Structures are given as structure tokens and as C-alpha cells.
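[RESIDUES AND BACKBONE]
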Amino acid sequence: MHITEKDFGQDYHLITLRNEDGFQMAVTDLGARIVSLGKGKELILGFDSAQEYLEKDSFIGATIGRTAGRIEKGQFSLDGKDYQVSTNPTTGHSLHGGKPGFEEKKWAYTIEKDESEVSVIFTMLSPDGEHGFPGNLEVEVRHTLTNDNIWRVTTTGISDQTTLFNPTNHVYFNLTGDVTHAMDEHKLWLNSDSFAYLRPDTIPTGEKMDTKDTAFDFQTEKALAEVFASAFEQKNLCNALDHPFFLKESNLDIPAAKLTSPDGKIELSVSTDSSSVVIFTANFGDEGPEIRGKKLANHGGITFETQIAPGAEQYAAFGSIVLPANEPFKTITEYKIILKEAD
């Protein structure tokens, strides 16, 4: 295992990890984010400096919190007390815990290494009242690269008051290595038979909709082009996918999702102990940023934001994002890259 550190601009650092096979991962203390992943081909979206993240899109690759996704009107109740948290001025809803959030913080970090894996451990304190959320929340995010080409994200947290906590990582994948290529010919499989039905303002209604006979049924692998071309009204709502999918099993030993490159030579396998995954297909139209010298295509990336489904603060059937005072929280997601020959 090999480790290098260098300046990433604006007093941030870039830490690059390389395993014995030459597979690399780079992370930064700006937002405890992943910046780069791959071997000979870049498999995720990212920028070359801290300044670009702050100016173009600070969510890409970042740790998201306190709460991933949207909270309707930024309102919720805990222990009989009503809370109002920061909202987006355009939508009137809370997004990703308020901005600036975890994605724009400078995290402290340490490095741990052994023969089989290397980890960068980021830590940060979100103070009581930040964006209106109660409790001093201590967060640790551990990014690990193994010799098996697994990127593991382990997130822990503890608060001195009961609060909401639903973190994720906002990585985007494009297995072609070229962000000018849309995701159309990538093939997707999901271990899910239901998704959260959304209102026109993308807030969940509380309904879990069966994927059967819809464009959102990925229980049999299919090309994303089939979804993009469909007339399904939930697809039209978001110009593709921006939906929470409920996983049939939440187990690190069982894949939650698989993504295969158009040429069949690269497979991404995602496993998690979270109960859902938000799939977003970078529905930016012509507004996508320039990434490493190339203009991001519409649908030029796809996220696998493992978490409890947004809306859980309202709908018990989605799960619970309440973190009781002084009780530890932990969640793990693994992204395994399989390099293979085409069939």
C-alpha cells in the first residue's frame, strides 16, 4: 500500500492511496470527499482543485449531512419539540442538511495502513444548532482502499442531544472514463422492487411504489437508455432518475446494486447495511460543469447514495433517522470495482 499527500489549494490536502495492483483512490479533507478512483481510467466525477469544488459543485464526491436528501419545508419534530432547519431559497425545502454543510467543511484527518488496506479517517464536529439541528454531533468518516479494489466508506456519529442523522456519500460514477459520454449504455441492476413515489417538487408522498411493469424495474439488468427513453411519469418528473429505491436486503455480503460499463470490461458492485439507495443520473441538461477539461454530458454520471430514504422523518415505513442522545451510529457501504474482459 502506498500513500502520497499534496496541496489541493486553499489550505486543503489531497491524499492518494494506491494498492499493490496499482489501483488508486484519492480523497481530500474538503468535505471528506472522494476525488478520484481507478486504474488507468478515471471512474468517478471530480475536479482537480478545492477551488473548483467550491465554485462548481461542492456536492460531487462529498460526505453529505446531517441529513441526505430533502426535508419538506425543513420542518420536523423530536420528543414533542418542533424544529425549523435551513431551507433552499428556491424550493423552500431543506436539502442535504443545509448549505454550507458537511461538504464544505475542513475535516481533520489521520491515516492508518496495513498490508491489506489503507484508510484515511476524517473527523469533524457539527455544533449544536448548526442549520437548526439540535445536538453537538461528532462525525467520523473512514475511506478505505483494499487490495481487492474495494472502496469502503464507514461513517460513525454520536450526539449529546437527540437529533436527526442520515449521512451519505455523493459520488458519481461513469465507467467509460469520459464524462462527455452519457450513461445510456451502462447497464444497471438493483436489489430492489420498490421506490419512493415523488411529488412534482420531488418530495416523497410516503408511498412505496412497486417497480413491476415500470421503467424503474432493475431486478433484471438493463441499459439506462431504456429508462431515459421511457414515458414513465416519475421519470419525466426528474428528467430521469432522482429517486430512493428500497433495498430487499441490507447486507454487506449481498450486492445492493451492480453497474456494468458499455464495453462490459468494468463492473461496479455496491453493498451496504443501509435500507435504501438514492439513484440520481446527473440530470443537469446543458448546465453540467466542466470536469477535468471536458463538459459533463446530461446524464453523464450516476450516484449510489446509500442511506435511509428521505422522508423518514415523516413516514415510519421508510425507517428512522432519529439518533438518540449519546447512542453511537454506524453505517458501512462498499464499492467494489471488478476489472474483467468483455464476454
Q: What stands out?
A: The chain has a mean pLDDT of 97. The chain has three helices and 30 strands. The helical segments are 50-56, 224-228, 233-238.
